[in-house]
């Protein structure tokens, strides 16, 4: 399932969107108050649907699309002037005022589009990742979540699939895949 990030300069708007989406069955991964916070959240997740309520003081929707469009679907919610200022055709737009149903529907559609874009992990890939996680957990005394994040971060930082990095770890330890 795509991780949902809600970003807005306004705390009340973040909380309102979070409540609305939670009541519609969505799980929010993180609420972000700034562009730098949103970038950190995007680094922490493999995939995302970003709901951007207006532009952030340090990040515009076009910049977000340019930097993260390969890994994230972006929904810009705002007044017509904010939507018109966004030049990227890849950013989905929803004009205010909008109903909660329209917002939840847009997020549902983007989540589905995002799922369809992502490469599927094979059973072999999953097995290799699990083996590498167990090895990391044993050697570095980490929890499963910490080992997963370590694998994920290295793979993302080096532009490789997690399974490829996990396979490399297993080979270096002399473990059969």
What do you see in this structure?
The mean pLDDT is 87. The protein is of the alpha/beta class and 177 residues long. 55% of the residues lie in helices and 15% in strands.
Number of helices: 8
CATH class of the largest domain: Alpha Beta
CATH topology of the largest domain: Rossmann fold
The share of residues in extended strands comes to: 15-25%
Question: What is the tally of beta strands?
Answer: 5
Described by the principal axes of the CA atoms, the overall outline is elongated
Give the oligomer, counting copies of the same chain as homo and different chains as hetero: single chain
- List the helices and strands in order: EHEHEHEHEHHHH
Q: Any idea what the CATH architecture of the largest domain is?
A: 3-Layer(aba) Sandwich
Low-confidence runs? none
Radius of gyration (Å): 18 Å
Task: Tell me the layout of helices and strands.
Blueprint: E1 3-7, H1 11-23, E2 28-32, H2 35-44, E3 48-53, H3 61-68, E4 72-78, H4 80-85, E5 92-95, H5 100-117, H6 123-140, H7 144-157, H8 162-172
Helix pairs in contact: 6-7, 6-8, 7-8
Quick rundown:
The protein has helices at residues 11-23, 35-44, 61-68, 80-85, 100-117, 123-140, 144-157, 162-172; strands spanning 3-7, 28-32, 48-53, 72-78, 92-95. By secondary structure, the chain is of the alpha/beta class.
For the structure shown, list the relevant keywords.
elongated, Rossmann fold, Arc Repressor Mutant, subunit A, five-stranded parallel beta sheet, 8 helices, 5 strands, alpha/beta, 177 residues
């Amino acid at each position: 399932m795509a991780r949902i990030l809600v970003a807005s300069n306004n705390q009340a708007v973040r909380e309102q969107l979070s409540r609305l989406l939670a009541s519609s069955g969505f799980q929010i991964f993180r609420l972000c108050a700034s562009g730098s916070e949103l970038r950190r959240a995007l680094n922490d997740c493999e995939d995302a649907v970003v709901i951007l309520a207006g532009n952030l003081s340090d990040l515009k929707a076009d910049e977000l699309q340019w930097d993260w469009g390969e890994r994230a679907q972006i929904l810009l919610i705002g007044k017509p002037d904010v939507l018109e200022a966004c030049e990227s055709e890849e950013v989905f737009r929803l004009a205010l005022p909008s109903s909660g149903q329209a917002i939840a529907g847009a997020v549902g559609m983007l989540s589905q589009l995002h799922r369809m874009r992502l490469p599927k992990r094979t059973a072999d890939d999953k097995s290799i990742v699990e083996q590498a996680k167990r090895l990391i957990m044993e050697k570095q005394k980490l929890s499963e979540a910490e080992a997963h994040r370590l694998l994920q971060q290295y793979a993302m930082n080096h532009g490789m699939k997690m399974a490829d990095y996990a396979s490399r770890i297993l080979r270096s330890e002399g473990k059969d895949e």
